[in-house]
Design brief:
Helix content: under 10%
Largest sheet: 12 strands, parallel
Number of helices: 1
Number of strands: 42
Number of domains: 3
Distance between the termini: 61 Å
Strand order of the largest sheet: 9-10-13-16-19-22-25-28-31-34-37-40
Radius of gyration: 24 Å
CATH topology of the largest domain: Pectate Lyase C-like
Shape: globular
CATH class of the largest domain: Mainly Beta
CATH architecture of the largest domain: 3 Solenoid
Amino acid sequence: MTKTTAFTLSVTLALTVATPTISPNGGNFAGFVSLAIQSATSGAPIYYTTDGSTPTQSSTLYTGAMTLTNSATVNAKAFKSGYSPSAVASASFTNTLTGTTGTGKTYYVAKTGSDSNSCSQAQSQSTPKLTISGAFGCLQPGDTLYVRAGTYTEEFYYPAIAGTSWSNPLTLSAFPGDTVTIRPTGGSCGAPCRIFTFGPPHQYIAINAFILDCANCLYDVIKFDNGAHHIRFSNNEIKNGHENGILGGTNNEFINNDIHDNGNTDFDHGMYITGPGNLIQGNKVHHNKGWGVHIYSSGHTDVSNNVVRGNYVYSNGTSGTRGPGILLGSGSNNIAYNNIVQGNIDGIQIGFSAANATVYNNTIYSNRGNCIVVGTPSTSTILKNNICYLNNSGITDVGVGTIQSNNLMTDPTFVNPAASDFHLQSGSLAINTGINLFSVGVTTDFDGLARPQAGNYDIGVYEYH
């Protein structure tokens, strides 16, 4: 007789969240870099830091592509209930163009300062200047001026500042972590005209991380006269201009700004660009009276070769009469791609004799008029890989030689459009149905992920992954 004994073996598997990936994975960048973070574990929120510390669930939650304009070490960690947290992913980035890593001097302005302090004294945080204008006389190309927390009431009309190149710029920045508001109360028009007015010889100036509040101004928040060029506004809030948030511009950069509540009539816009070669990237442009981004000139200047990419342009046209999200008008070779355009009067407009305008991989949703309108006598417009859904009408084309290809006009099955989450669900008709646009520079999506993720390009701003 054989005796048997039964055993019960319990095995507990410890599940661990996949380590996030940071793309690109560090390196040098010139002026700005867009980066994306993702984890292969579905439903695992990612938290990150930019100071090299270890992320916790009290750190910043990653919600989408981010733009760095300063050198940073980005660490990321993913968490999920029932799982062990991921390992820390890390990537170090160095901005080679900010001047902060160069040989220039650093000066300080603070509400506790005095303009009687010398320039030498203003290089110490303990003896800063009192006003921003008071520090301008200290600055040379390559220098950085940090402004400490508080509200400053100055207007800057043709300030005596300039850099010489993006390797030797002049940088004005809010001190990291401080909230700095510039809200003029007096100026060159009796009341303030604007906050910044630039002209010759203004060039190679970087302005970063201010709240630019023009509630008391007569005109625009920022204006560029002819001769000003290569000026970069990044990470600013630009608001309450009586006319435009931004007016003018040649070879300038507007990166990761929040531009809102500008204008008095539908002739006033969030951004009114009247010159060539500008980069408009990663901005939120919303609740402006007229257009969100308005690229046009009546013929006095060339308005060509502007790039509008990766912006969220929404709820413009608050005057109730006119106000598309984006206008590419009166120039040639202007391009708009990877933009979310939602809740404006029209979505994207091509017009006023525009030539060779290109509109690629935009998500255009719930606008009150057309998704896209190509007006007469626009010529050789190209519309590819755009999602047009729940607009009052689709694509209206009365241009000459327009090319339309791979635009999705039906339900793309967004994740949660009510919460403005326009990522694609599995099975979306936008997945793998786009045309490859790598050769024309559309190489990443709104989150900074490489296109394509698998198979063909997806339609709209996001690649499914």
